[in-house]
Amino acid sequence: MNKVVQKVVVASTNPVKVSAALHGLQAMFPQYEFVAEPISVPSGVSDQPMTDTETLTGAFNRVSNAFEAQPTADFWVGIEGGVQTLHTDLAAFAWIVVRSKKLVGKARTGMFFLPPAVAELVQQGVELGEADDRVFGHTNSKQKGGAIGLLTQNVVDRADLYEQAVKLALVPFRNEELYLQHQEASVSLKPEHF
């Protein structure tokens, strides 16, 4: 029996983000077959978001821009990595925003604290992936295991971190009746509606 194909516009061409989006959707909706269409769109925030709110805004903007660029799909997924200082340490995490024609879901990954050498570079304006590459002597780590993969020796990698949050962002889609009553029929994608 052939599964119904669902088109997913992923607001990134980073293979880690595309894979996490597909695996998260497939796990939550095994009755469908998901096909990704990666697209590069602006986040409208800093290359390295430095707060929780800026990171969520970046994920939201990516979804909004992907929807405008490719309005014929079943899902749109935006993933934005960010950092924030908590007490005296710099924590890393990502926000995921998923939308369909009717609903919007969002979730944040777990967070972890960056080692001082990486944190200092990021606080000087270096993007986290570049800081990781410099400190660990790698190339393009953000399209591989990312900071978490380097720090855990890939016990947890960037795809693992993102995939769980994609699943959490899909909770409203598994429970439409509970969430639709609070979202407008035509999904409003304005930041103030977060």
Automatic annotation (TrEMBL):
Catalytic activity field: ITP + H2O = IDP + phosphate + H(+); XTP + H2O = XDP + phosphate + H(+)
Q: Which GO terms describe its molecular function?
A: ITPase activity; metal ion binding; nucleotide binding
What biological process terms from GO does the record include? Answer: nucleotide metabolic process; thiamine metabolic process
Q: Where does substrate bind?
A: S12, T13, N14, P15, V16, K17
Q: Which InterPro entries match?
A: ITPase-like_fam (IPR029001), Non_canon_purine_NTPase (IPR002786), NTPase/PRRC1 (IPR026533), YjjX_NTPase (IPR050299)
Q: Which EC number applies?
A: 3.6.1.73
Q: How is the co-factor bound, per the entry?
A: Binds 1 divalent metal cation per subunit; can use either Mg(2+) or Mn(2+).
Query: Which Pfam family would be a valid example here?
Result: NTPase_I-T
- According to its UniProt record, which cofactors does this protein need? Mn(2+); Mg(2+)
Function description: Phosphatase that hydrolyzes non-canonical purine nucleotides such as XTP and ITP to their respective diphosphate derivatives. Probably excludes non-canonical purines from DNA/RNA precursor pool, thus preventing their incorporation into DNA/RNA and avoiding chromosomal lesions.
Subunit annotation: Homodimer.
Give the protein's recorded name. Probable inosine/xanthosine triphosphatase
